[in-house]
Amino acid sequence: MEHAKLYINGMTCINCQTRIQNALTKHPGITQAAVSYETETADILYDSSVISLEQIQGLIDELGYSASVQKTSRAKIVNQTLRELDIIVILYFLLRHFGILNYLAPASLADAQMGYGMLFVIGLITSVHCIAMCGGINLSQTLQKDSEPSANVSRAMFQNAAAYNAGRIISYTIIGGILGGIGAFTGMAGTLQTSSFFQGLLKLLAGALMVVMGINMLGLFPGLRRFHLRISMPLFQKGKQKDASKGISKRSNASHRRRTPFIIGLFNGLMPCGPLQSMQIVALASANPFTGALSMFFFALGTIPLMLGFGSIVAGLGKHFTKVGRESQETFCNYRTMMSNFVEM
After folding, report:
1. Domain boundary residue among 44, 68, 92?
2. Per DSSP, what are the bridge partners of residue 8?
3. DSSP E strands, the chain
4. For residue range 32-72, what is the model confidence (pLDDT) as tens digits?
């Protein structure tokens, strides 16, 4: 047995750690693999007569990351970061120049006198924004394993998309009720101006989280990688030892995969998204728990056709799309927290 330590570039969230570790431990010849998102390393114990270190690096590269026996120099990271920042700045000014940056989240979106029908229509319109901000989360909860039969894959993908969106509706409704109650308690009935502090606080918190996540992705300050959100995904089952005596049953894994999209949908209500914040202000200004809950419910209902349709299209494409989609998912998974407030900046 031989031991090797590899440095991995490209891990953007804690689930990348789990994904790499699972892929390595399942491969013949690899006895143990301990992957760390915080240190961007992998400690591997392997049988060199079965698999070589170059092949192990190839396995990691196939997952969309890069592995090397030497740590990437800080100068190289800084240079790459500067090039990426140049592109971001150019895109920002282009979007701002053409008025696209806040097109789907205008400041006048919230109106305390809106009817439920109008809230539903706003949900339909801003669901395009939802695809941009939450489409990656939806996709991450929809994709299935390649080993499943095609018919089972399509059915499970549709069920996951439905569960994720059901969680969103429930979360939005509950939050609307809570905000309506807060509005009643603080006397915010019929006014949106007094709730500007609430909206500003959300944006400040989201902005701080976005900065930390961005720095983590760039790898500029490795110490900040200790601050992360651990959100499990159906594709990224928790690390399993090859010891059959520990055996996590397939049934328990399937049950976990079914629950996860719904739970992620519930957490989706806490996302600092522009249109969502506007509707939360409407619920707050209603100063009524029941009215606030209904306001958020109809808004959430309006976002369902496009969001569920997005998941259904992926499900319809089935197994042939899964491999490509899984690779795309790695790019989108960071939208869960980091990109959720980019449109408002």
Report:
1. 68
2. 67
3. 2-9, 30-36, 41-46, 66-68
4. 999 988 888 899 999 988 999 999 999 998 888 888 888 87
Residues 225 and 251 in one domain: yes
Q: Report the distance separating Cα 240 and Cα 24, nearest Å.
A: 11
Total Cβ atoms within 10 A of residue 105? 18
CA 189 – CA 338 distance, rounded (Å): 33
Rounded (10°) CA dihedral 150, 163, 296, 173: 180
Are 206 and 272 a contacting pair, CB within 8 Å? Answer: yes
Centroid of chain to Cα 296: 21
Within this chain, do residues 129 and 276 fall inside the same structural domain, yes or no? yes
Q: H-type helices in 68-149, by residue range?
A: 74-97, 116-142
Lowest mean pLDDT segment, chosen from 135-149, 191-205, 280-294, 325-339: 325-339
Q: What average pLDDT score do residues 329-336 get?
A: 45
Token output for 160: 């996951």
Is pTM, for the whole model, over 0.70? no
Domain that holds residue 88: 74-101
CATH of the domain at 54: 3.30.70.100
**How many domains would you assign to the chain?**
3
Residues 228 and 143 in one domain: yes
- Segment 126-180, tens digit of pLDDT: 887 777 677 777 777 776 554 455 556 667 777 888 888 899 999 999 999 998 8
| SS3 state of residue 233 | strand
The neighbouring-strand residues paired with 3 are: 45
**CA 189/CA 297 separation, integer angstroms:** 19
Check if the beta carbon of residue 109 is closer than 8 Å to that of residue 286. no
Q: What mean pLDDT value characterizes the chain?
A: 72
Distance CA 17, CA 333 (A): 13
pLDDT tens digits for 282-316? 888 788 899 889 999 999 999 888 888 776 666 55
